[in-house]
Amino acid sequence: MQNLNPFSRKTIPYDRISKEFSENDGGSGGQSSSSDPFLAQKEKHEDEDDFLRFKHLLRLRSLRLRHACSYLFVALLSLLVGLILGQFFGLENDIDGYLTPYGSTHRNIRDVVWWENKTFTAEPSEESEKAWMSVIPIGRGFIDHPVLAPKQMKCVSVFHELHCLHGIRSAYFRNTYMLSKTRHQLAHLFPSSRSPLNAPNDHPHMPPTPFVSNPYLEEVLKHLPPAHLNAEHINHCFDYIRQALMCAADSNLEDLEIDPSDGELGADGWGIKRTCRNFKAVFEWSEKWRSGDSDGIA
């Protein structure tokens, strides 16, 4: 009697499997897709669709790549332009608003017109001295700054230049006043004196200016001349201002006019439009970073 084992693995002989596979393959061979026009046409359409989809994907990829390159180019160009503009327009603001001597011109003031201000040209008086002192900031232009002057105090040049100009002016009026006063006194003490101080007028068409006492200068002359009015300092100031003018090299163009008194062609510099540095900004910056609270121009 045959032993039955329901758990035994059923096996199929290899030759039987091979035979069944061959029969199935042969049975389906007569129905191949190549012999069916409908299936062939369907496969052709599918291939075309696949090609079109692939072509579309390539086009999208190429378009995205071009867009990416365009964005990258614009970004790099913007960065370059920003760096260039930063050099020209941001340089003067990079240290607390400091106007660098070599900075760009965008912070200049245009269409400034100069007119004579006789307060600054008149003989020394309380009014004229206040006017001169008004162009010097508190601290007199001496500054302390963590970046620009980290180790020792420094001075802003324009206020040194104004100090020197004021010194020359003070020495001039002091000496001319003393000379005029001496001539006036000698003329009354020695009417017939042949002293050079009382020499006849060399220009008869220009009558001598009568001496007028100046109370402010009279008070000044009671004291010894300050150190900044000695000859050595005045000589320094002449050359210092010369070099300062050449350093600034003001290139504004001035109109020429004929002087009606002598017919000479010349320029007084008044009444024309100029482009100027922003003195007010320099003044305010110097006052902000001042090293002390001293004032005055002398």
From TrEMBL:
<keyword id="KW-1133">Transmembrane helix</keyword>
<dbReference type="InterPro" id="IPR021765">
    <property type="entry name" value="UstYa-like"/>
</dbReference>
<dbReference type="GO" id="GO:0016491">
    <property type="term" value="F:oxidoreductase activity"/>
</dbReference>
<feature type="transmembrane region" description="Helical">
    <location>
        <begin position="68"/>
        <end position="89"/>
    </location>
</feature>
<protein>
    <submittedName>
        <fullName>Uncharacterized protein</fullName>
    </submittedName>
</protein>
<keyword id="KW-0812">Transmembrane</keyword>
<dbReference type="GO" id="GO:0043386">
    <property type="term" value="P:mycotoxin biosynthetic process"/>
</dbReference>
<feature type="region of interest" description="Disordered">
    <location>
        <begin position="1"/>
        <end position="40"/>
    </location>
</feature>
<feature type="compositionally biased region" description="Basic and acidic residues">
    <location>
        <begin position="12"/>
        <end position="22"/>
    </location>
</feature>
<keyword id="KW-0560">Oxidoreductase</keyword>
<comment type="similarity">
    <text>Belongs to the ustYa family.</text>
</comment>
<dbReference type="Pfam" id="PF11807">
    <property type="entry name" value="UstYa"/>
</dbReference>
<comment type="pathway">
    <text>Mycotoxin biosynthesis.</text>
</comment>
<keyword id="KW-0472">Membrane</keyword>
